[in-house]
Amino acid sequence: MHRLLASFMIVLAGAFVMVSGVLTGCSPAGGRGDTASGSKVILKLGTETAVGSPETRGAQKLAELVRKNSNGTLEIEVYEDAKLGTMRERNEGMRSGAIDMGTSSVGFLASYEPVAGIFDLPYLYTGKAHEMRVFDGEIGREIDRRLREHGLRVLCYFDAGTRQITNNIRPINTLNDLKGMRLRVPQSEASIEGFKILGATPTPMPFGEVYMGLNKNVVSGQENPVSLILSNNFYKVQKYLSLTNHQLFMQVLLVSEKSWRKLSAEQQAILLTASWEAEVYEREIVAREEVELLSILKEKGIQVNEVANQGEFAARAKSLQEIYIKRLGQPAKDLFEKIDALR
């Protein structure tokens, strides 16, 4: 409801600015909100994953909505599968203004806001509903406010699904099964520390290198949502898929603050409201397809097992909270309390 109201107010503000522009005259394109009326603006958006992934399909839906709602005067070109660079390169590109838009895990943004690393910790939420309450409320808005100080602006939060573990050694049923296993993890400190405390040997690696790393036995396993395990053919080089449900994962859709300021108020409103529509579309894909994709993976031959005692994993991961509080102080303590209050 708050988003619908905000959307109406932004569009109303955009209409006021348009009328003011007619009365006072429009300045040439190049500064904040001064894109010339009728001129076409093209934004480049980079995603982490392949065309069939929910993340990239959400980005493509956004491009479709923006083109339609702007009558073609604002367009988004989607570059999937890290074609605009790794997550780190995209984030830096957006900060400098070289890249307009991109997706990133929230925890990966800890290099700018250290407390953001908390969002990549394992077993942080009780379930998807809890996770959505976190990002769709005050905490999500606070992430946006903090990132603006670093040249990044949040448009929406895509659901990246629930992360599971695959490997070539054995099914994961207990913490002992993870001990010493070389697992590819994202290049975020929270992911690395999370799997260390669970007993694995985490190996950070860009997403685009994961298939080759598995195929060449650089790592024995990896962890990702089932949508990415299928769309990236990881099942072809992995024997076991264990449903650890260790991380409920969000990909935040960002726009460069420099690119944002070059848009007119009307274009900003179109982009923001279309982002919220794309968020709903993308989240529905994830909710609808996770069970279906798991069945397809079973048919492909990967052995799937439920993890009966996830509480053992969650209890071990809980100690990370004290580590982060000692490291980051009161901001981390406050954030953990806010997350727990939404359970």
Describe it.
- Strands 1, 2, 3, 4, 5, 6, 7, 8 and 9 form a nine-stranded mixed sheet that branches.
- Helix 1 (2-24) runs antiparallel to helix 11, helix 2 packs antiparallel against helix 11 (265-300) and helix 12 (310-328) runs antiparallel to helix 13.
- Helix 2 links the parallel strand 1 and strand 2.
- This protein has 13 helices and nine strands.
- It is an alpha/beta fold and 343 residues long.
- The protein has a single domain (2-17, 40-341), classed as Bacterial extracellular solute-binding protein, family 7 (D-Maltodextrin-Binding Protein, domain 2, 3-Layer(aba) Sandwich).
- Mean pLDDT is 91; it is low at 4-32.
- The longest helix is centred in the last third of the chain and has 36 residues, at 265-300.
- The chain has helices at 2-24, 54-69, 87-96, 128-135, 138-148, 175-178, 189-197, 210-215, 226-231, 257-261, 265-300, 310-328, 330-341, and strands at 41-46, 74-79, 101-105, 152-167, 182-185, 201-204, 221-225, 240-256, 303-306.
- 48% of the residues lie in helices and 20% in strands.
Sheet with the most strands, sense and barrel status: 9 strands, mixed
The percentage helix is 40-55%
The span between the termini is 21 Å
Shape: globular
Number of helices: 13
Proportion in β-strands: 15-25%
Number of β-strand runs: 9
Ranges where pLDDT stays below 50 over 5 or more residues in a row are: 4-32
CATH topology: D-Maltodextrin-Binding Protein, domain 2
Mean pLDDT level: 91
Please tell me how large the radius of gyration is: 21 Å
List the helices and strands and how they pair.
Elements: H1 2-24, E1 41-46, H2 54-69, E2 74-79, H3 87-96, E3 101-105, H4 128-135, H5 138-148, E4 152-167, H6 175-178, E5 182-185, H7 189-197, E6 201-204, H8 210-215, E7 221-225, H9 226-231, E8 240-256, H10 257-261, H11 265-300, E9 303-306, H12 310-328, H13 330-341
Parallel strand pairs: 1-2, 1-3, 5-6, 5-7, 8-9
Antiparallel strand pairs: 3-8, 4-7, 4-8
